[in-house]
Specification:
Blueprint (H helix, E strand, L loop, with lengths): L1 H7 L11 H8 L3 H27 L8
Length: 65
């Protein structure tokens, strides 16, 4: 749902979009949930990039034995 809210929010590029508060209220999502998801996106992107590099190189994540 947070991806949808992010895609449909009003911005300079999308002036016909809806406010985050309105979409969260209609969809039953706390605004704090949306903003927590938004704050975590950079870390998720870094993790995704690292996983792709490891898959390309044939490495795996270290595991406990």
């Amino acid at each position: 749902m947070c991806r949808f809210i992010d895609a449909e929010k009003a911005t300079e590029d999308n002036p016909d979009g809806y406010s985050i508060a309105l979409m969260c209220r209609v969809m039953g999502v706390n605004r704090s949930t949306y903003y927590t998801w938004l704050a975590g996106r950079p870390a998720a992107a870094v993790r995704q990039r690292a996983e792709e590099e490891m898959a390309f190189s044939g490495c795996t994540w270290p595991t406990r034995r």
